Every structure is written in C-alpha cells, then in structure tokens.
User: What shape does this take?
Amino acid sequence: MSLAGDLERSVLAGAERGVLRFVAAGSVDDGKSTLIGRLLYDSRAILEDQLAALERASLRRGAAGIDLSLLTDGLEAEREQGITIDVAYRYFATPRRKFIIADTPGHEQYTRNMATGASTADALVLLVDARKGVVTQTRRHLVLAQMLGIRRAIAFVNKMDLVGYAQDAYERAVEEMRSFAAPLGFETLEAMPGSALRGDMVAARGGSLGWFTGPTLLERLETLESGAEEAAAGPMRFPVQLVSRPHGGAARGYMGRLESGFLLAGEEVAVYPGGRRTRIRGIRGVAGEREIAVAGDSVTVVLADDLDIGRGDLIADAGAPPREARSLDAMLVWFDAEPLRPGTRLLAQHASRRAPACVSEIVARLDVNTLQERSPDGPASANDILRVRLSLQAPLFVDSYRDVRATGAFILIDEATNRTVGAGMVS
Assistant: This one.
C-alpha cells in the first residue's frame, strides 16, 4: 500500500467526515432565520421539547402557527425586536450530508457579526426579498463573502408567495444580483425562487413554482463542494497553539490545528521565525500515533530536532514558505464606532501570533454599491470596507488570503479595551 494512496484516502476521508459550513445572509427581514428554521424543521432536526417551547414562544408573540425564525433568534433582545443580532450556529444532517449553518445579522449595525459567520464558511446562502430585490446590505454581504474567500454562493429569492409566485419578479431580482456580482468572481453563483415561510423550494418543491425546474435549496446544498479538499491542496501551515512539555519518556510536542496542506511523518519542514529546517518525527492524534494529518485535523507534532518553539510560531512547508512581512497591504472591514484614522496603533492578531501594528495609511474606501475604490476622504467609520497599509513592530508570516485563509487573515484589537475593532485580509 503506497504512501500516496494513504494520503489520497486520508484527504477523501477528511472531506467525507467534514460538514458543509454555510452562512445565511441578506438584508433585514429578508427571512434568513425563517429559512434556517424551515431547514431544521423539514430535516427533523428539532427535538420534541424544542418544538414544544417553540410553539409556546410563537403563541406568546401572537403568531397563527409556529414561528420558525425563533429557532435561531435565541437572544431575548432579538425576539423582542424580531431581528437577528448575534451569530446563531445550528447543526443538522440529512442521509447525504452534515451541515453547520451560521445565521448572521442583516442590519448594517451588525456587519461585524456577518463577517464572523462568513469567515469559516464554505458557501453563502444569500436571501433576496422578491419584492425589494437587491439592496445596499445585500451588496455589502456579497462583497464581504467574496473578500472572506467564499467561492460558492446561492441566492434564494424569498417571499415569492407575496408576489404571486410571478416568474418575472424572480428574474428581475436574479438579473440585478448577477449584474452586480459579476466582477466579484464567484466560482458558482446560482439562484432559485422560494418561500421560507411556506416551505416552497427549501426542502420540498412548491406547486406554485412549477415553472422552475432546478433543485431545491437542500438538494443543492447536499452536492456543494466543501473547503476541505481545497485546504488540503494548499501549502502546509501549522500554527503552534500550545507546547506539550516532555514528561516520562514522551518527547516535546507542538499542539495545534493543521490549517492548510498535509503533514507526513519524515517530511522536511521549516519553523518560523527563523526558517529553521527540521523533519516531522511523529504525529499524534486523539486515537494515537498516525503517519498523516490533513487540513482541519487537530494534532500534536513531534519534531526530529530540539528547537526553541513556542505559541505563535509557525511550522510550514519547507518548499513553499510563507512571506515574512513587516508591513501589510490589506483589505480591512472596520467594526468599531470609534473612527479609524491614519496613525492609529493597535494589536494585529494573526493565527496564534500577535504583533503591535500601526495603520500607517488608509489607501481607499470601497463603495459597496458600485464596487469602485474611492479616496478615503477623512477617517473611516464603522462597517467601512477599506484598503489599508499596516506597519508592524514584529514580523508576521503571511500568505495571500486567496491562497490560505488562516495565514492570510488577521484581526485588529484595541490594546486599551481589548475590543476587536477590525478584520483584515492580506492582499
């Protein structure tokens, strides 16, 4: 049995056991929470006690039937306002696949939460109200999804029951969305009509949409590719999270999650900072020793040489090293209510490494309606999407975000308050 064959089987097994992570996004009141509630309800992922509690909550709100949006709107403030504020994660499975859904806020005020939900997603399900079509927040979510590395998107044109299931209303919304999204370069951008409230085209076909011959939303989600194989095909990147000190006869180990590529026992690697070369002596997983680890696996790595390695260091592919950066050109989503000005000093958290940083220049601000970069014309405000230049007091070891998400992304932290104030993607 060849090592190459073992590796191929390991990658495929990782893809099979991995779930599809997708983020549901769109503007306020486009029906995201109802859509997710419908998916959970129709896939029988709701326990009897949850269903009973849902019925009681729906009755208190005066709903004629079960209000499925309450399954994900868990905060009391959300239920009172009828909007989603936090990111709600839900898990469900069909006979064909397992899923993790992130239900993200639609209101512009909570754009940071949408970015959080999208940062680990394999796909975007974008809700579009058939009555309103594409609005500014819809465009912003498409731009954020593309920036955050999501390559596959599905537009669910919702509330078709409120426009009499008219095909021309659906086609107008789809044309508007495709026209805007064309420059963004999604690998796939599909569309389907439906009604989350009535369940049309979510998990079952609706009789009033006989003119649409494509798959239901659930059927399409079951066949979408996940990011597991893409990550396994990238350069090996293993940020060290924790050092396992030697005890008894055990060797020192370096613990973390393999973010990209694969690890092979005996393979030469480089350790950063410094680029020191060594080899993988052993790999330990939950079940014990193993020869191979693939992207997504949490393991302990034992090296052949006794090197001075700590949390924040990076074990990487010796033949495809990361870039050592003391300055960064990046796209940045600014979260904080406090305006961002050139010269602002912050902390950059990159994988498990942290470095003091200064926003030396705000190069441009992105207009999400036209996709044109414009002069920053003053300080940046909350939810602005910017092109910036950072200077770093200590080096970071980075890749382009398009190549490796984990080492191409960073967050900015206000050192005084410990607030996360921005999220960036390395160009």
In short: Residues 231-317 form a domain with the Elongation Factor Tu (Ef-tu); domain 3 fold (CATH 2.40.30.10).
